[in-house]
Specification:
alpha+beta, 7 domains
């Protein structure tokens, strides 16, 4: 039968039997033949002849035949037909979670859906097709809705199974995406995710049907069946070209078959695995040093001659690539690289110890743990702690775990010296690994149990030294600093006499120049007299565009209204709290709003004029009293030092002179022409 005859006869049959669904299905499966014989209006007419059901007729009218390709309109009809009362649906953004279709209205062409947090939400047909997807009864959100006991049991007692159900429901995801979806859907709170995932991952690693990648961004996948790693697998593996998949494939193979599967007696397997490892190592060179180190560690573990372990070790030593590799390796694999580099090699051990200042914290921990019994290594490591500025990683390790070393490391300097390094580490503005060490040290000093143990190890003189050194540190958060100082006094009451009484900073009135006040008021008047009325006009205009729930212009205008109202509230509060002032009452005995300061800085002499909260003019050197720089100078006198804000190490300036405001600045402060207070 010719295509034209087939289309005509089949659609006539559907019209005679009232088989609307059959007509849609036939057209979808034979769309080329149908579109060759019928235009969009003809397809729509043929469908409407196949039913008298008003709902189905409204579907045919509501999928925009003629405005989009026929094939797309047919797909949209099939999707609408699936939205039956009681069906589970999901919003594509997961913003509303699971919904249950409540009813379909053929007259207004609306679909009503009950979401957990949004009951009775109505969608137009077009919006429903674009924004909703079907969810079967085994979807994790459907289980949560229909079988809460099963849901809670999986979540609490079998997190690995829960994650598998998530993957079946939402498709393969990386750990990062998995966390995001779990938190957005309300399965797990953000604070509880880490503990949940650790338990789930432990279960999943034992499941042969689950693949968990090392990188958080790579996809966790569910396998259809357990791999037997036989000849078929080896044959396919022999053509693998992704270095990461080669690494994981060899590990899985050895885990399944045992190391004996790759021994010299198994020539075929060993040849294939060796060839792929050599390929992966070459591909990783100068691209991913961490991956190269993992491959080298695996070559060492399996005892391969090809690729050459010595060559791989040499590559990691060359240009100190092992340092970059250690920084990005998973913590559990750093030890394997350390063993690879120093395998029975005293020279390698010494080279690694000397590289400690450049190594990440995890690698330093491994080096110290592995070579702590060797006197030569202990001396090399201890010498770093006697430097004026000890490595941050070593300082953090020794200050936090001193109890493990104090008996077996006679080469270490006294504990008070290590503590002094730790306080210095806590002071500067740092970045990268050093910032991480700084945060660890700061948490240690805030831990009262750790501090109590420290005081127990120190003698009276060293306690006093520690107390005075910490008290003199200026870069800690003031409230935390005060708490730690008082905690030290509580541990050793005799330190009370060493406490330095700090004068409370003077409170300054909230003032600004007449110029800045007038400009702020003009901005406020424009907001309430121009911007807000214009927004109201936009809202009223948008109301005429139709259904407010699907009206983007209306939503944008309402969002803008909320922003404007919040801005109006904040500006009104500011105008009531801040007063205009001409700065005539101040003196020059100390730095306060309304003076010009000359200061010595590392970049030379600088002049700043400090005015009120809203004042700022870079050309005249005018700065607001609320800036960090001004706040650090307020209350200081000639000869006093103050901290200069900025990135990196802390730097200081010195007050050289304090002078009254110049005539030029006072002229600047006047209310601009055309403005009013």
């Amino acid at each position: 039968m010719a295509d034209a005859d087939l289309v005509t006869s089949r659609l006539a049959e559907c019209a005679q039997t009232g088989d609307f669904a059959g007509a849609v299905r036939f057209m979808r499966e034979n769309v080329e033949a149908v579109t060759h014989e019928l235009n969009a209006a003809g397809v729509k007419d043929a469908l409407k002849k196949a039913t008298k059901d008003r709902l189905l007729l409204s579907f045919a009218d509501g999928v925009e035949f003629g405005e989009r390709p026929i094939a797309e309109s047919l797909v949209r009809i099939e999707k609408l037909m699936a939205f039956q009362p009681g069906a589970f649906v999901l919003s594509k953004s997961l913003e509303w979670g699971l919904g249950v279709v409540k009813k379909l209205d053929y007259f207004y062409r609306r679909i009503t859906v009950d979401f957990r947090m949004k009951k009775g939400h109505q969608f137009t047909y077009a919006a429903a097709v674009d924004m909703l997807t079907m969810a079967d009864a085994d979807h994790i959100l459907a289980i949560q809705h229909s079988d809460p006991v099963r849901y809670e049991t999986m979540l609490k007692d079998h997190p690995g199974e829960f994650v598998k159900q998530m993957l079946k429901s939402f498709g393969p995801m990386g750990a990062q995406r998995l966390e995001d979806v779990a938190i957005r859907c309300g399965f797990v709170k953000a604070a509880a995710w880490k503990a949940f995932w650790e338990k789930a991952r432990s279960e999943l690693r034992k499941d042969k049907l689950v693949y968990i990648p090392v990188r958080r961004s790579d996809l966790i996948e569910l396998k259809a069946s357990e791999e037997d790693y036989g000849e078929k697998w080896l044959s396919a593996f022999g053509h693998e070209t992704d270095p990461k998949l080669i690494l994981s494939g060899v590990r899985e193979y050895v885990e399944k078959k045992g190391k004996s599967a790759a021994d010299p007696a198994n020539e075929a397997a060993r040849a294939t695995i060796g060839d792929r490892l050599a390929f992966a190592a070459t591909a990783a060179m100068r691209v991913d040093d961490a991956l190269y180190a993992r491959l080298a560690a695996l070559v060492r573990e399996l005892g391969f001659v090809n690729p050459s372990l010595e060559a791989m070790r040499g590559y990691l030593w060359d240009r100190k690539r092992f340092i970059k590799a250690a920084a990005t390796l998973p913590a559990r694999e750093v030890g394997a690289m350390v063993a690879l580099l120093t395998d029975g090699d005293a020279e390698g051990r010494e080279r690694l110890c000397k590289a400690i200042p450049e190594l990440c914290y995890t690698a330093v921990q491994e080096v110290v743990a592995r070579f702590g019994d060797d006197p030569a290594s202990r001396k090399t490591i201890s010498d770093f702690m006697r430097l004026p500025k000890a490595p941050a990683t070593l300082t953090t390790l020794f200050v936090g775990s001193y109890g493990r070393f104090k008996e077996n490391w006679p080469e270490l300097p006294p504990y008070i010296s290590i503590l002094a390094h730790a306080i210095a580490l806590g002071e500067g503005r740092q970045g990268g690994e050093t910032l991480r060490m700084q945060n660890i040290v700061r948490r240690l000093f805030a831990d009262k149990n750790w501090l109590g143990q420290v005081f127990a190890w120190l003698n009276d003189a060293d306690r006093a030294l520690l107390f005075e050194r910490f008290q003199a540190s200026i870069a800690w958060d003031p409230s935390t600093h005060h708490t730690i100082v008082m905690r030290m006094v509580h541990l050793a009451p005799e330190l009370e006499s060493h406490v330095i009484k700090v004068e409370k900073k003077k409170d300054y009135a909230r003032i600004t120049s007449p110029r800045s006040y007038a400009m702020k008021k003009a901005e406020y008047l424009k907001l309430i007299n121009v911007d807000m009325p214009e927004n109201v006009r936009k809202i009223e205009e948008a109301k005429g565009y139709g259904d407010l729930s699907e009206n983007a212009e209306y939503q944008y205008a309402k969002d803008e209204q909320r922003v404007l109202m919040q801005k109006q509230s904040l500006m009104q509060a500011d105008l009531e709290a801040v007063k205009a002032d001409e700065f005539k009452a101040g003196g020059t005995d100390e730095v306060e709003p309304g003076v010009t300061v000359t200061a010595q800085t590392p970049e030379g002499e600088k002049t700043y004029t400090i005015l009120g909260e809203w004042d700022n003019d870079l050309e005249l050197g005018i700065i607001s009293s609320r800036t960090k720089l001004a706040a650090n100078m307020l209350g200081k006198k000639v000869g006093d030092e103050f901290e200069l804000p900025g990135e990196g190490m802390v730097s200081f300036g010195k007050i050289l002179a304090i002078a009254p405001l110049s005539a030029e600045v006072r002229a600047w402060m006047a209310v601009p022409a055309g403005m009013q207070m």
